């Protein structure tokens, strides 16, 4: 009983010890101060990055907007992770944890993990060169392997691609070996127009060419006036004429739909019909009977 009473006294003495509560209070104050300072510092860094690229937009010599968006997002992520890591180290040091020992151990563990995590290292190195060489950027429309869509995010380890149907594909950078970027250069819209064999081809060509000259003023996605190349194909029921148009990057689908609509409306105005399949019946029996009558 005496031992229990002594233990109880020691616990009470510890609880009511002013030095203990002073240390706890100071520690909590330091931790809260670190968190607040880290949040404010991170906000200032993000604002500085945003303003830096905003000023760059007005500079006479600048990189492309697509690359600026990629670099801005990447720098923001790097700054966030760096501030969080430093804040964590400062909190551990405040709690009395030996930070130097942890960092030394982390270096050894990191070296060991590096040998085993070769895929992770390859992803990071590939991601670095993707950004450095500006192979593609956020907002570009690309095809990587079997995946095709707009680039949502580029990180040092993964790349996110969103298809036009809404699926988000997350690809490790190390698996990216071939990339088709549709957003770097202007696109080409290709439209085939079918007319009947009975139509006046020269008249139809004149009507279409007059229409094509009017369209660039109406649709800003057209870089140059559309061009009528001529007859592309001749089938049993139709004559196919091809129209091409250089457009802004990734606007060729929209321009192709516009061209089909405008050409159809203009042909209707001139009474030119779209051809339809025809079937000719040949009766061999009737030919034999006519031949017999003629011979008789």
Automatic annotation (TrEMBL):
Keywords: Cell membrane, Membrane, Transmembrane, Transmembrane helix. The chain crosses the membrane at residues 31-53, 74-95, 101-121. Residues 78-118 form the Mechanosensitive ion channel transmembrane helices 2/3 domain. Gene3D superfamilies: 1.10.287.1260, 2.30.30.60, 3.30.70.100. The keyword Zinc does not apply. Residues 191-274 form the Mechanosensitive ion channel MscS C-terminal domain. It is a multi-pass membrane protein. It is found in: Cell membrane. The keyword Nucleus does not apply. InterPro entries: LSM_dom_sf (IPR010920), MS_channel_1st (IPR049142), MS_channel_C (IPR049278), MscS_beta-dom_sf (IPR023408), MscS_channel_2nd (IPR006685), MscS_channel_C_sf (IPR011066), MscS_channel_TM-2 (IPR011014), YbiO_bact (IPR045276). One of its GO terms (cellular component) is plasma membrane. May play a role in resistance to osmotic downshock. PANTHER family: MODERATE CONDUCTANCE MECHANOSENSITIVE CHANNEL YBIO. This is Small conductance mechanosensitive channel. It comes from Thermolongibacillus altinsuensis. The lineage of its organism: Bacteria, Bacillati, Bacillota, Bacilli, Bacillales.
């Amino acid at each position: 009983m005496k031992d229990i009473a002594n233990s109880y006294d020691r616990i009470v003495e510890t609880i009511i010890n002013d030095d203990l509560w002073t240390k706890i209070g100071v520690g909590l104050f330091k931790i809260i101060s670190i968190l607040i300072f880290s949040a404010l510092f991170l906000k200032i860094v993000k604002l500085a990055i945003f303003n830096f690229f905003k000023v760059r937009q007005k500079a006479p010599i600048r990189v492309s907007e697509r690359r600026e968006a990629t670099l801005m997002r990447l720098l923001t992520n790097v700054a966030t992770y760096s501030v969080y890591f430093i804040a964590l180290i400062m909190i551990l040091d405040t709690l009395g944890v030996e930070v130097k020992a942890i960092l030394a151990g982390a270096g050894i563990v990191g070296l060991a993990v590096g040998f085993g995590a070769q895929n992770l290292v390859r992803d990071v190195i590939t991601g670095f060169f993707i950004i450095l060489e500006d192979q593609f950027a956020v907002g570009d429309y690309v095809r990587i392997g079997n995946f095709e869509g707009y680039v949502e995010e580029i990180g040092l380890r993964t790349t996110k691609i969103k298809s036009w149907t809404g699926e988000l594909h997350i690809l490790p950078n190390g698996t990216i070996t071939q990339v088709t970027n549709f957003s770097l250069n202007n696109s080409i819209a290709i439209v085939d127009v079918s007319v009947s064999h009975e139509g006046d081809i020269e008249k139809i060509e004149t009507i279409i060419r007059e229409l094509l000259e009017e369209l660039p003023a109406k649709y800003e996605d057209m870089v140059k006036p559309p061009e009528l190349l001529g007859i592309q194909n001749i089938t049993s029921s139709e004559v196919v004429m091809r129209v091409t148009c250089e457009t802004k990057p990734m606007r060729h689908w929209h321009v192709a739909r516009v061209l089909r609509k405008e050409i159809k409306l203009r042909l209707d105005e001139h009474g030119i019909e779209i051809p339809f399949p025809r079937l000719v019946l040949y009766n061999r029996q009737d030919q034999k009977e006519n031949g017999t009558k003629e011979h008789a």
